[in-house]
C-alpha cells in the first residue's frame, strides 16, 4: 500500500540528497561531498569570526541531516539510500572544522574525508549500524573527525620539515 506524501517529504528529499547531488549517476557520495566543499568556505569565515556561531551552524546542520536522512530512509525504503548524501556534507563540515579554507587544505580535506568515508576504520563502520538517520550520519561525522585530524597531522609534519 502506497503511503500518502507528507508535506515535509519534499524538503527532506531536498536536504537528504544534498540539493539533489545524490542523484548523480556515478559516485554519488563523492559528488555529494561537493556541496559541503562549497559551503566550507563561508563556514570557515564564520568560524574565524565566532566559534560559537560555527558550532551552532554545525549542530543545526547535523540535526537537519539526521532528520532528513531518516525520513529519506523511509521514502526510499532503504537503510542507507545511495541518493542520501547530506551525511557527506555534514561529515565534510566536521573535516573542515577550525581549518583554513585555502585550496591546499580543501584538497587535502576532500581526499582525506573520502578516504576515511570509504575505508570506514573502527568505529566508523560500527557507527553506521545505528538505527535510521543517526546511523546514516554518524559514520560520516566520525570519518570527518579522522580526516580533520589527518589534515592537522599533515600540516604539523609539513611545518616541522
Strand content: under 5%
Overall spatial form: globular
Supply Rg.
16 Å
Percent helix range: over 70%
Number of domains: 1
Global mean pLDDT = 92
Helices, by number, come to 7
Query: Kindly, what is the distance between the CA atoms of the first and last residues, rounded to a whole number of angstroms?
Result: 64 Å
Quantity of strands, as a count: 0
Task: Write the H/E string, N to C.
Answer: HHHHHHH
Structural class of the secondary elements? mainly alpha
Largest sheet report:
none
Description:
The relative contact order is 0.15. The protein is mostly helical and 161 residues long. It has helices at 9-16, 28-49, 51-75, 86-95, 103-119, 124-127, 132-160. The radius of gyration is 16 Å and the shape is globular. It has one domain (26-160).
Task: Give the structure's gist in a few sentences.
The protein is mainly α. It has helices spanning 9-16, 28-49, 51-75, 86-95, 103-119, 124-127, 132-160.
Amino acid at each position: 500500500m502506497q503511503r500518502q506524501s507528507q508535506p515535509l517529504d519534499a524538503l527532506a528529499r531536498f536536504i537528504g540528497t544534498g540539493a539533489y547531488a545524490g542523484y548523480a549517476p556515478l559516485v554519488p557520495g563523492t559528488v555529494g561531498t561537493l556541496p559541503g566543499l562549497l559551503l566550507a568556505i563561508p563556514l570557515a569565515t564564520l568560524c574565524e569570526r565566532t566559534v560559537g556561531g560555527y558550532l551552532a551552524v554545525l549542530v543545526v546542520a547535523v540535526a537537519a541531516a539526521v532528520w532528513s536522512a531518516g525520513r529519506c530512509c523511509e521514502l526510499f525504503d532503504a537503510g542507507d539510500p545511495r541518493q542520501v548524501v547530506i551525511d557527506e556534507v555534514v561529515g565534510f563540515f566536521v573535516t573542515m572544522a577550525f581549518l583554513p579554507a585555502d585550496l591546499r587544505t580543501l584538497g587535502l580535506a576532500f581526499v582525506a574525508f573520502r578516504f576515511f568515508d570509504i575505508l570506514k576504520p573502527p568505529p566508523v563502520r560500527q557507527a553506521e549500524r545505528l538505527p535510521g538517520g543517526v546511523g546514516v550520519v554518524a559514520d560520516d561525522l566520525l570519518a570527518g573527525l579522522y580526516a580533520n585530524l589527518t589534515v592537522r597531522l599533515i600540516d604539523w609534519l609539513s611545518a616541522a620539515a
